[in-house]
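Would you be willing to look carefully at the protein I have copied below?

:::
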Amino acid sequence: MSDIASDFETVPEPYKIKVVEPIKLIARQEREVAIKEAGLNQFLLKSDDVFIDLLTDSGTGAMSQNQWAGMMLGDESYTGSRNYYNLQKSVEDILGFKYYCPTHQGRGAENILFGIIIKKGQYILGNYHFDTTKAHIELNSGLAVNLIHERAYNTSVEHPFKGNIDLEKLEHFIVEKTPEKIAFLLMTITCNSVGGQPVSMENLRGAYQVAKKYNLPIFIDAARFAENAYFIKKREAEMFSYSDGCTMSAKKDGLVNIGGMIGIKEDEELFKKVKQRCVPMEGFPTYGGLAGRDMEALAIGMREVVDEAYLASRIDQVEYLGRKLKEAGIPIQQPLGGHAVFINAKEFLPHIPQTQYPAQALCVELYLEGGVRAVEVGTLLAGRDPETGLEILPELDLLRLTIPRRVYTNNHMDWVATCLKRIAARKDRIRGLKIVEEPPILRHFMARFDWAE
């Protein structure tokens, strides 16, 4: 914000509302029916039955007037669309990558790149892989390893960069397993699974140096690159200098409803392989599963997202909700991250064992209380050990209140906070859940539940 804005206690959003979408709070009895029909899984709810949707910030943001105008300039040629080259200019200017390949979203980018680089049984090391990334690693016969610093697991500890990888653990793992058994390093910025926590420039530099010491490639999961850059007050291009490339779900910091990409710094041979694999999996490399209008919206969005006024407003709204919950005594991951507020469900609901999914039970209760849809980032999301089939019990069992970009006002945040305060007054009566149906991978999307005994 401007210097003048720093003199005020609150600062308004750096935009005004031009178009609105009606939302409706259906009656409590209707919510009870809706969540039961959804198998107590908020992913299976109809959006019309949701009042405030904090399920995800992926593709749920509001686009600007310039992005909508840009979509009218979509060049829908099958190859060589002008929008591809406009996006190429944004990628080079903002991220600093010489080569890029658009994809329909981040998962498409991961599936292409991982299938090229990973050999069967190799380890992929990172600060903390998100569930969909872990799934794509395993689908490509790799083994995902999380090496986040231990302080990330203590939600009450204040540290500015809880997303940092533990550099000592990283080097020890490489030496112990040998570099030949490591496919690559992947740094997730900000680190979603531990509360949207940023990674420091020093830590990125250190991870890069370790990777180069052992001749290993290092990539960045860049879904929320601008938010991470804002936290460390550095130019985003400098962050990406400590990598060989990136995968990106552009549905977050690309400020679009669909889109992703692979960015590669210098490795032309790898880029050739990416393009070859893109053709059968996503489409021709100059559209990669996107319409020309989508690429144009992304080209504009990537420039808008690094505007400091936007970022200040975005992160301030997350902090606003977090402060409300903290004042109410609700345990959250501290300090607050960039895209969501994470409630420590293990601490909030200590009477529910992890095997009965406390964060998922809290998701159900929050929907019943006020029509708010949130998401579990805990035992349910962690899944089962692929070898033993046993539940993986992560250190953190979190409920994520994910705030879409440029969508809700602080009045909506007040509603969410009030719902959680009311739940806190009767939290001892909340019951755990048991799974009655689950798919073998990424189970939290489609699993169905019943109340535990």
